[in-house]
Specification:
The chain is of the alpha/beta class. It contains seven helices and nine strands; from the N terminus they run αααβαβαββββαβαββ. It has a single domain (3-240), classed as Rossmann fold (3-Layer(aba) Sandwich), CATH 3.40.50.150. The longest helix is centred in the middle third of the chain and has 13 residues, at 83-95. The radius of gyration is 17 Å and the shape is globular.
Amino acid sequence: MSNLYETQRLVDEYLLFHYGQDHEILPWENGPVSALRFPVRTVTGLLPAGPVARALDIGCAVGRSSFELSKTSQEVIGIDYSHAFIHAAQAIQTQGRLPYQITREGHTTEPLTAHLPEDIHAGRVTFQQGDAMDLPATLGTFDLVHAANLVCRLTEPLRFLTRLPSLLGSGGHLLLTTPCTWLADFTPPDRWPAGSTLDWLMETLAPDFTLVQQKDLPFLIREHARKFQWSVALGTVWQRR
């Protein structure tokens, strides 16, 4: 991935995306409120309810989905390629809070604080830096794998997808979301899907997984008070056969 994800600007942007209050992210009454709380909605709105033993959050960024998974998982491992993202997630976990800055416009900024969410089990979560395309064999197997907006940011996405069957036990669930934003800066064009991303995922995963749910998931990333990235991720849930 690009060194962009090691910059303080991106850390601050993702802290707001993961932990910001609705009015901090979107200070406009007529804005797309349905796109807020994406890192929570991917867990609570798509994955099966009920307790499980182990969950893996690949591409966990600054950790909000990992914390949400701890409500129903006895053990959660959050992995991200960015050292800066993992350090931020660990700081929130151990200190309960992390100050950061958001941009209003130009050089004008505003201080905010990311807080450890309530009603989660922080002690169940372990964060570690790692490469989704080269995950260690020692990870073992999981009941849930959560990978939000990761696939189209990998240089070799098929290396990640072909590793997934060995990460999930029979009956386990996989959540994948992607805005299908294929960019040469991240993925060489000859490794993009030849057709639709959904068809490519179905062809790749069908030998080992059954598609059980598909849903469009809007999300909103604030750049500054008057500029936002509004995107719609393709959300899919798969069950390991």
